[in-house]
Amino acid sequence: MANAGSLVIELLLKVLKGTPLKAAILEEIEKQQNALVGHPFIKWLDDPDDWVIGPRFSTTCYVEDSVPAVVYLALKYHNDPEHALIVNTNLGGDNAARGSVIGALLSAEHGVEKFPRRWVDGLLDPLPQLMPK
After folding, report:
1. Cα 112 vs. chain centroid, distance in angstroms?
2. Which residues are registered as beta bridge partners of 57?
């Protein structure tokens, strides 16, 4: 658990300080200081997502699988938050937990503006910064 928390916090802090998400992830992979980034993520980017999430990383909530799955999806879809979250949802399993971390990482880089309005419109109590001006 400590490895998972420190990795996610490290990535979030880097992105919030201005490092692009892709660069932050690649830096963590290169440093190899966290066991959760010891997978061949770069090699797998061309594979279909359901060959990675499911067969290689369980879709269940086990941290040793879910955090690397988040890293893989955030790296692959770093420029397309909407697609990243849709892909994650369609992969099933513990997609809500994965989605919350992916969403946090992607919104740290892109802000809420990069997410579709239709995901906010109709919410009962949306945050004020999400409301149209």
Report:
1. 15
2. 53
Q: What is the pLDDT of residues 32-87, one digit of tens each?
A: 888 878 889 999 999 999 999 998 888 877 777 888 899 999 999 999 999 999 99
Structure tokens at 133: 């001006």
Q: Which of 76, 132, 61, 126 is nearest to 106 (CA)?
A: 76
SS3 category, 102 = helix
Closest CA to 14 of 127, 104, 76: 104
**What is the model's pTM?**
0.87
Structural domain boundaries enclosing 88:
2-130
- Residue 133's contacts (CB-CB under 8 Å, 6 or more residues apart) are none
Residue (of 72, 101, 89, 74) closest to 5 by Cα position: 101
> Is 28 within 8 Å of 37 (Cβ atoms)?
yes
3-class DSSP state of 2: helix
The distance of Cα 26 from the centroid of its chain, to the nearest Å, equals 14
**Number of structural domains the chain divides into:** 1
